[in-house]
């Protein structure tokens, strides 16, 4: 068995000659120097081999496993936006979804395959577009139909191999499991798919001898990548590294395929296990942006990539990836905004505190030399320091060029119409707040651009509340038919009243499962940033279910966010954002367009109110139901 730090690679051809390039390196004091070094090109993509023994493929499953996080449902537009950003980041494979889950999932994967999967860069790079499938024939055919339009399509099929899964979940014998896996791979071959990934689910708790057997059989059937999942996050790094080494040594034909890792984070070891796998010969690592995913999440792409970038040469025998780290932070922000999954402040690489220094001793060291306490710079992941803004202070007298310059420094390239939308919000905020920080700009960006397709739009909102009477809200909204309407609601507090007023117009039954509000910056003038999570309720609740790769039929949840200097307005924008996302998804699934002309004077049927929200508490489960349509 190979040692943990041996960094043994698969038996492949020698690395290709490097390409000489000039690179400006940011020095601790803000100066730059130019260094000349050899930078290897990304190897030509061949499904079952890599012509560089040190190259590790990055397989991003944010759009599939990441979206399985509760409340992280993404619309087709959001998935396409994220896929484009992942291509900009340089991931080798994008697992775009589970096509059989729902019509919307299928269309999203198909669109990504046709657009992102055919957008070839000048250097020849184009990501592989992958779809997940169970071993069922209808799943396989649906997945292949979704991805086959890509220049480099792949189907990823799986079946559980641990004793507990085979006995209690599958109710299949080991022989039946092997037959199902082999039949699936052969069926994909017959459809014309030549890039096939196979995963033995729960491999980390499976009998190694059985693993060698089933993996050897799928290799003979035509699989090109073998993914080894630690599905429950059970393994320790030395165990998982040893498992990868043993599979490479004992599986017939392992030298002719790529070995991959997929590690869950239940014990907080997903990144460590992934790196241990790579150091023992795995040459593909499956991960997600911000580490989102089932339960405790997956291996974090940014952690894996930066660990290899910073330590790969010295401690991993030269391992490298093709990722462009400068796009990490904008990608992390987009995924957080779209999914509703907040990044914890102390999250490695992309957390708000990752480059913050409060200790006096640390601050003293940083002032003398940044390398005393920073092993990487925020600029290297696309996050400029505010003190490097060349003296430009943004405020109410700032113009479009100044705002656009700051946005570009933060990693955003906007069209003229997008810039106009953000600039309007920027000027409105600048009239009420003296200094506009990067955090304010990012919040406005999220609220204007990182939003689902607009079906209902908030035009105006007014609330009356206090100790003298019932809180009342009046909203003016523009519906999908372009007509502006006014709705009124009475509630236990201003947010509850605003939500009931919105319900009176939208008339879609939804259950509020989570509500949170936070301050973007410090001070009384700070922007409020609100996030909500809802799920279909009432007559539409049955249509809110889709197929989950491992759990079967599950109900979808939809998140929304909003930012404004007024907490009630921010809350309303967040709720409307979540409703737009849910209506858009439901209209595809149910094939029923949302109602655009509610009956005048229709009554409301509401369950538990938002009293806890208006008292400063997030409800565990508040019911927001509008009249039946």
UniProtKB/TrEMBL annotation:
UniProt-recorded Gene Ontology molecular function terms: 2-isopropylmalate synthase activity; metal ion binding; methylthioalkylmalate synthase activity
Domain of life: Eukaryota
Catalytic activity: 3-methyl-2-oxobutanoate + acetyl-CoA + H2O = (2S)-2-isopropylmalate + CoA + H(+)
Region (Disordered): 609-629
EC number: 2.3.3.13
Comp. bias intervals (Polar residues): 614-629
Domain Pyruvate carboxyltransferase: 56-329
Keywords assigned by UniProt, alphabetized: Amino-acid biosynthesis, Branched-chain amino acid biosynthesis, Cytoplasm, Leucine biosynthesis, Manganese, Metal-binding, Transferase
EC top class, as a word: transferase
UniProt signal peptide: none
Pathway(s) this gene product operates in, as recorded in its UniProt entry: Amino-acid biosynthesis; L-leucine biosynthesis; L-leucine from 3-methyl-2-oxobutanoate: step 1/4
The keyword Metal-binding belongs to this UniProt entry's keyword annotation: yes
One GO BP: L-leucine biosynthetic process
HAMAP family per record: LeuA_type1
Family statement: Belongs to the alpha-IPM synthase/homocitrate synthase family. LeuA type 1 subfamily.
Protein name: 2-isopropylmalate synthase
Native source organism of the sequence: Edaphochlamys debaryana
